[in-house]
Amino acid sequence: MIETRLLRQFVVVAEELHFSRAAERLHMAQPPLSQAIKRLEEHIGYPLFIRDKRSVELTSAGLALLDKAHELLNTLDESVAYTRRVAQGIAGHLVVAMINLNHHPEFWRALGVFREQMPAVEIRFVEATTSEQVALLESGEADVGFMRTPGTTAPSLTIERVLLDPIHLALPCNHRLAAASAVKLEALAGESFVMSSRALGQGFHDQILTLCKTAGVTPRIAQHARQIQTLLGLVAAGYGVALVPASFESVAMQGVSFRPLLHEAPPELGCVALNIASNCTVRSPLRDAFIDTIKRYL
Fold first, then answer.
1. From the Swiss-Prot or TrEMBL record, what is one GO molecular function term (predicted)?
2. Using N-to-C axis directions, what is the helix angle for 285-297 and 105-117, rounded to 10°?
C-alpha cells in the first residue's frame, strides 16, 4: 500500500518539475525527497520521472499517476473535513420520525431555522406513530422522534416534553352540544366516540379513557382511525365525537366544531404532550445540535 505522504511528495515534485524547489515547498532536504520518489517508483515498478542534469519530466506513468493522485488526495481531504464536521455536529445525516405535526407551525419554523444554520445536514423524515417511533429509536433506525408520551416504559430513551396542548372536544356542527361555548366532560356520557387504536398509540389512547373516567364517562367507541385528520373526517360525517389536541383547530375541516372541555381532572391529564425523544445510549453531536435548535425555536 502506498503511503499518502509519498503521494503528496510526488505531486509537489510533479508540479514543480524541480527537486530543489519541491523540497523547499515540502520543508525537507532534497536527498530524502529523492529517496522517497525512488521508493514510490520501486513500489509501482516503473519510472515516474525522466531526470537529467538540466530538467525533470514526467513519464507517461507519472502523468497517469498525477491525475489519480490529485483525485485521491482531494477525496481524502474532503473526507477528513467532512468527518470533522460530523464530529462537530455540523454535517452528516439524521433520520427524524414524527407523528403528524401539520397543526404545529412553530415546529416547521424551527425546522427551517435548523436547515438555514446547518445546510450540510441531510434529514430523512419518517411518519410514524408513537409506538412505532419507540421501536425505531431503540433499534437505531431513527435518531430523533417527535411523539406523544409512550404508554410503555422505554429505559434507553430520553423523552423531553416541548409542547403542551389542551384536549378539546371535536363534534359535528349540528350536534346538540355545538351551541355551547364549552362542554362539560360528563355531558358526553352515552355519546359515540371515534378514537385512535390503542395499538397505534397506547399512551394517548389510555389518557383519553382515564380522563373520561374522572367524569364517570365510558366512551362507546364507534370507529377507530390511524390519523387524527381521519378522526375529524369521521366526526364531520356524524360517526361520533372525538377528544383531540386543541392545536388541530388550526386544521379547518368543514362540518366540525371544536369546544374547550370542562372537567375536574388533574391539569396534566387534560393536556397532551409533544415530546422529543432520542436514544440516550447512542452518542451523536449532530442529533444533539438538532434537538437543541428545535427546542430553542419552538
1. DNA binding
2. 130
Q: What is the DSSP letter of 250?
A: G
The letter for the amino acid at 187 is A
Global pTM reads: 0.68
Q: Which CATH number fits domain 163-272: 3.30.70.100, 3.40.190.10, 3.40.50.2300, 3.40.50.1010?
A: 3.40.190.10
SS3 114: helix
Considering the domain 92-161+276-297, what is its CATH architecture?
A: 3-Layer(aba) Sandwich (3.40)
| pLDDT tens for each residue of 237-267 | 999 999 999 998 887 789 999 999 999 999 9
SS3 194: strand
**Where are the CATH 3.40.190.10 domain residues in the chain?**
92-161+276-297, 163-272
Rounded to the nearest 10°, the torsion over CA 220, 225, 229, 235 is -30
R_g of the chain computed on alpha carbons: 32
Contact in structure between 228 and 248 (CB atoms under 8 Å): yes
For residue 188, which of 219, 167, 158, 164 has the smallest C-alpha distance? 219
Fold of 4-87: Arc Repressor Mutant, subunit A (1.10.10)
Q: Which grid coordinates are listed for 86?
A: 460530523
Query: Are 184 and 225 spatial neighbours (Cβ–Cβ below 8 Å)?
Result: no
| Alpha carbon distance 162, 158 (integer Å) | 13
Candidates 76, 4, 77, 64; CA nearest to 40 is: 4
